[in-house]
Specification:
Blueprint: E1 2-4, H1 18-27, E2 30-35, H2 43-51, E3 56-60, H3 73-84, E4 89-96, H4 104-121, E5 125-130, H5 133-142, E6 148-151, H6 157-165, E7 168-172, H7 182-190, E8 196-198, H8 220-231, H9 235-250
Helix pairs in contact: 3-4
The protein binds zinc ion (ZN).
Zinc ion (ZN) binds at residues 6, 8, 36, 92, 201.
């Protein structure tokens, strides 16, 4: 059993065959899928999808890359929505310095406001970070949230350690299945197993075996397999460990314990 800690199953790319994708993912051993939000207009659809199945978990937030689409009132909306719905985390939120046209001060203000909301609600966060780890870490040291996941982590081992010290886990996805990702694969081999959670980021960032295609949560076993090979571990053991990591940091109860997920 494995958990996809970052999958945009709610987006239009899955409208034609979402049920079939989900069925194949379950057959492949995916026991849970965390669906992070992008912008407020998507929240209702995302919540509706997650309400339709026990193994889909919603996160709500305002993605930094879509800065221009967010409204000031969305922050109030976020506070209200997470108070009213069984949301697992605030996300995805963060800083993206990779895209030069994105206003950094605007992103930082949005990120800090959402961290404060997560802190008040006692929720972990799902982070999107590109070329901005040091700024994100500095802000996380100032606004202490209940940990979370740095998704698609691609920083240094030193930055990884700082996230771990702040109660975060690091998400690894399709990139590790490409042998050319040598720096990322070295990092994945060096980290303690307790640091790692699995993700697809579907429909983006697909795995090597499905290069050029839509990514899908059903390919998550490819990520597990690649990580196990890189680390010289048994896939079954790494599956158990990464699933335990995801459940601990996102506080997902084990379904067969017969109690509420939250
Ligand atoms: Zn994402």
């Amino acid at each position: 059993m494995i958990i996809d800690t970052h999958c945009h199953l709610d987006v239009a790319e899955f409208d034609a065959d979402r049920g079939a994708v989900l069925a194949r993912a379950r057959t492949a051993g995916v026991a849970g899928i965390v669906i992070p939000a992008i912008h407020a207009a998507g929240w209702d659809g995302l919540l509706g999808l997650c309400a339709s199945a026990d193994d889909l978990y919603p996160a709500l937030g305002l993605h930094p890359v879509y800065l221009d689409r967010h409204h000031d009132s969305d922050l109030r909306g976020l506070e209200r929505a997470i108070a009213e719905h069984p949301v697992l985390a605030v996300g995805e939120i963060g800083l993206d310095y990779y895209l030069p046209e994105l206003d950094r001060a605007g992103q930082q203000a949005l990120f800090e406001a959402q961290l404060s909301i997560a802190k008040s609600a006692d929720l972990p966060v799902l982070l999107h970070v590109r070329k901005a780890h040091d700024d994100v870490l500095a802000i996380l040291r100032r606004i202490r949230v209940k940990g979370g996941i740095a998704h698609a982590f691609n920083g240094s081992i030193q930055q990884a350690q700082q996230y771990l010290d702040l109660g975060f886990r690091l998400g690894f996805g399709g990139m590790v299945t490409f042998t050319r990702s040598s720096r990322l694969r070295r990092l994945a081999a060096e980290l303690p197993g307790e640091a790692i959670v699995l993700e697809t980021d579907a429909p983006d960032m697909t795995v090597a075996a499905h290069r050029g295609e839509r990514n899908s949560p059903e390919y998550l076993p490819d990520v597990l397999q690649a990580l196990a090979e890189i680390r010289g571990e048994e896939p079954g053991e790494l599956a158990g460990l990464t699933t335990a990591n995801a459940r601990a940091v996102l506080r997902i109860a084990v379904a067969n314990e017969g109690r509420s997920r939250y």
